Amino acid sequence: MDYLIPAGSKKQLLIFGAFKPIELAFFAIALGTTILLLMILNPSSFVFAMIDMAPALITGFLLLPIPHYHNTLTVLKEMYVFFTTRQKFIWKGWCVRDAYKEK
Asked: 31: alpha, beta or left, given left = phi > 0 and alpha = psi -120 to 50?
């Protein structure tokens, strides 16, 4: 069964209250790729500099924190899951009586 978890319940498990360790590793790899591209290709114009910086910019956009949510990557992932799987999400909180008992 899939459950929706209240927004602030797992924030303390995140680094800086916003990022998972895998996301910071993902950003570090993108930043390393960007630095490597800047050193290898030596951009001579603004367009080439933007192409070289694309990995860090795209990853930074995907990991950008959204108020009352985790980040853009999580929102896109949840939208994909919502529109490609079953459409019934069950919310179960701490203060709610169990109406659906496990059998």
From this structure: alpha
Over the chain, what HEC string results?
CCEECCCCCCHHHCECCCECHHHHHHHHHHHHHHHHHHHHHCCCCHHHHHHHCHHHHHHHHHCCCCCCCCCHHHHHHHHHHHHHCCCCCEECCCCCCCCCCCC
The set of residues, in sequence order, having a beta carbon less than 8 Å from that of 92 and lying 6+ positions away, is 3, 98
CA–CA separation, 99 vs 89, rounded Å?
15
Alpha-carbon torsion 37, 40, 41, 45, what sign?
A: positive
- Does the pTM surpass 0.70? The reply is no
| 99: pLDDT strictly greater than 70 | no
In whole angstroms, give the CA distance from residue 102 to residue 33. 48
Residue 5 has pLDDT above 60, yes or no: no
